[in-house]
Known about the structure:
Strand content: 15-25%
Oligomer: single chain
Radius of gyration: 20 Å
Amino acid sequence: MPMKLHIEYSHAIPLEAFQWTPSSMLEPFHTHQSLEIGVCLSGSGVFYFEQKRYPVSPGDVFLVNQTELHIAQADPDDPCSFIFVNFDPGILLVEDEKLLLPYSYQSDQFQNHIAADTELAKMILPRMKIMLEEMKTQEIGYLSRVRAVLIEIHVLFLRNYMNQISSDQWRRLNESYRELRIILHFIHEQYTSDIQLADAAKLVGWSSGRTSRFFRECMGQSLKDYIQALRIREVTKKLVSTYDPISELCFDCGFQSMASFYRAFQKVTGMSPKSYREKFGLGNVFENWEEDNEKRM
């Protein structure tokens, strides 16, 4: 039975990179609210996207949007291993909304697979390895580098994608993302306020129902869930960079009560705000940096 996976981001930006080996048994198909890139490091298997089936070989790259059911399966005799990167679409949207166009596809009309022997795949693999290594080592500035590499990868995807669509398709896609940009700009400017779906619908002149469907299709989650996740991300930034009281951060970032804030924070991060600050706060970061330097000397 298909299911929707919840992706938790444990860093100040909504992005995760990890290495994974699929099961040799065919598991249930799933979707998730994040966008996803996968690259095969070794072995073989099959990657399923709804009715499509792609054999997997080392160096193959796969693109996954938020709506398409998918699952990878490893060959039992030669199991494939992947690097996967999951990330929130907002990372690309803030930079340039056109970078999201490769994910705005209809399942039956899109080639999710970029073969290992293409120049594009050969450029993607080393960049995926950089992202994985940076997320593992977490050396100073790692999030900035990961974000920069992610954007670079999507510039390569976009240039490749532009060669595959007509000028009319390009125009329609640009129109859709112009409206999404208007909504997201409003949310990022007003997230500390009590934003309602009707407020976003009014901006683009649509009904609340149409706006809700459009937002979920583009972002893979409801507008309400997106706003909550944005508020949590802003709180985590302030938890690690300031010594402001937690109650003050809660209300400054738009939460209406401490109880709702604590529930949401625990759900997203897996820990309390106090524990998060103790683990990732400035004092702890500098202590670890000093310890690492002493060990190198």
